TrEMBL record:
Signal peptide residues on this chain, from the entry's feature table: 1-22
Domain 4-O-methyl-glucuronoyl methylesterase-like span(s) in chain numbering: 230-376
Name of the protein in question: 4-O-methyl-glucuronoyl methylesterase-like domain-containing protein
Pfam families to which the protein is assigned, alphabetical: GCE_fung
GO molecular function: carboxylic ester hydrolase activity
Gene3D superfamilies: alpha/beta hydrolase
InterPro entries linked: AB_hydrolase_fold, GCE-like_dom
UniProt entry keywords in alphabetical sequence: Hydrolase, Serine esterase, Signal
The species this protein was found in: Niastella vici
Taxonomy, superkingdom: Bacteria
Length: 424
């Protein structure tokens, strides 16, 4: 493949950054060493006045903060609407022992090039009549990993070599069902929710050079946006939005009840998608950490400097300029969370996942609650973090559970209960 000159430079910078810096930046796991910091005021409008009500929020402050995120962290979110095409690749009304209808839908993203697509896997519960609410989320290594169902089409895209069963960066039969623990399919279906999932690497492979094989290159003329004007997180977030376009015309789905869930890096992408697209009716950040729900100004766990060094492609170029001066960043995670308001938002942490800074996630959810208050919605008023396995909050909800960085059955049970309550 021919690589255009500016991209060579971009790549060189990425790799140089990775090599020289990745190991050297300090990180901290000692709460007593977290220095005092001042968060940007989420309600301070560009004219210096305090945002006082939901109308000012929607008309002035929200667009202002969204724009700050485009400028400083994620780059442009494509505004151009594209006409996607769908093809139902396969369906079975008797999937998973008759409990669900399975659909595998190819979503073509390019008007002419049919190699640019993402495959959406859906399971729709059979026991419920009429359109159902859905949990939409990316998976980490292919649709075939979320269930042991042998009928799921085995992905043929690039996958990281650490993915189970991967040979030469491609999935094999041994990859099937590798991530069933993160996708509690039967529990979700029993609660009356559909599941919709796609592999995030369909949009852009998660490597520094991935943009050359992903939609930031293949759609640059269609979307009128150059690869370096946005970032991998942006591409993943935008892909989620296109899945909503599909879900809106699938009459087995209640398109007013689309819950978006993302774990870890995919939680960061989910928050950006939730910020950009109001059609996500509920957003779940599962341990999204640095660049997602965790306060960047807190020196704890992963830092902005470290994330940029390890994952130079995740965020826009400007974000890297704050590595050694995080206090100059005009936004912080509470502002990203505030862009979900007034929609239900669930932020979750795990106690052993210190890398994601659980306390930083709690504090940003609490701070974002100020914006929910403008809408008369209860957020988090607790002053300190709850005990393990205790939900706190109202429309903004938080828990920290025992255990490691993962999406567990416990997490799903809370999200399903929350969504059932909020969608009532
Ligand atoms: C790394 C990275 C995190 C990210 C995580 C994941 O640990 O530093 O920012 O959330 O990977 O996506 O699993």
């Amino acid at each position: 493949m021919k690589i255009a000159f500016p991209y060579c430079l971009l790549l060189l910078c990425c790799f140089a950054g990775f090599k020289s810096q990745a190991q050297t930046f300090p990180s901290n796991n000692d709460e007593s060493k977290v220095a005092a910091y001042t968060l940007p005021d989420v309600l301070k409008m560009p004219n210096g006045k305090q945002c006082a009500n939901s109308r000012e929020w929607m008309q002035v402050q929200r667009p202002y903060i969204f724009h700050l995120y485009e400028e400083n962290q994620f780059g442009r979110f494509p505004s151009k609407k594209i006409n996607i095409r769908y093809r139902l690749l396969e369906t079975d009304k008797n999937a998973l022992g008759g409990t669900a209808t399975r659909k595998q839908v190819r979503i073509f993203l390019h008007p002419a090039d049919s190699s640019v697509y993402t495959d959406l896997l859906l399971y729709i519960p059979n026991q419920v009549k009429g359109p159902v609410p859905v949990f939409l989320g990316y998976n980490f290594s292919g649709n075939h990993t979320v269930s042991t169902d042998n009928n799921i089409i085995l992905g043929n895209r690039w996958v990281p070599s650490r993915a189970r069963g991967a040979v030469n960066n491609r999935a094999t039969e041994a990859s099937r069902g590798a991530d069933t623990a993160s996708w509690q399919v039967s529990t979700i279906l029993v609660k009356g929710f559909a599941i919709a999932t796609a592999y995030y690497g369909d949009l852009e492979p998660d490597t520094a050079a991935g943009f050359m094989m992903g939609i930031r290159s293949s759609l640059k003329d269609v979307l009128n946006i150059q690869p370096n004007e946005w970032c991998a997180m942006g591409a993943w977030a935008w892909g989620l939005s296109l899945m909503v376009d599909y879900l809106q015309q699938d009459n087995s789905i209640d398109a007013h009840k689309i819950a978006l869930l993302g774990h870890s890096r995919l939680g960061k992408a989910a928050l950006w998608a939730g910020a950009a697209d109001p059609r996500f009716a509920l957003i779940v950040s599962n341990e999204s950490g640095e660049g997602g729900a965790a306060i960047s100004r807190r020196w704890y766990g992963e830092t902005l400097q470290i994330i940029n060094a390890h994952f130079p492609h995740w965020f826009a170029a400007k974000y890297k300029t704050y590595g050694d001066n995080v206090n100059a960043l005009p936004v912080d995670a509470h502002m990203l969370l505030s862009l979900m308001a007034p929609r239900p938002l669930y932020v979750a942490s795990a106690v052993e996942d210190t890398w994601s800074d659980p306390k930083g996630e709690f504090l940003s959810a609490k701070e974002a609650s100020k914006v929910y208050a403008l809408f008369g919605k209860k957020g988090i008023d607790a002053d300190s973090m709850p005990a393990l396995q205790q939900q706190v909050g109202g429309t903004v909800r938080y828990h920290i559970r025992a255990g490691k960085h993962a999406v567990t059955l416990y997490d799903w049970e809370q999200y399903l209960q929350f969504a059932s309550e909020q969608f009532r």
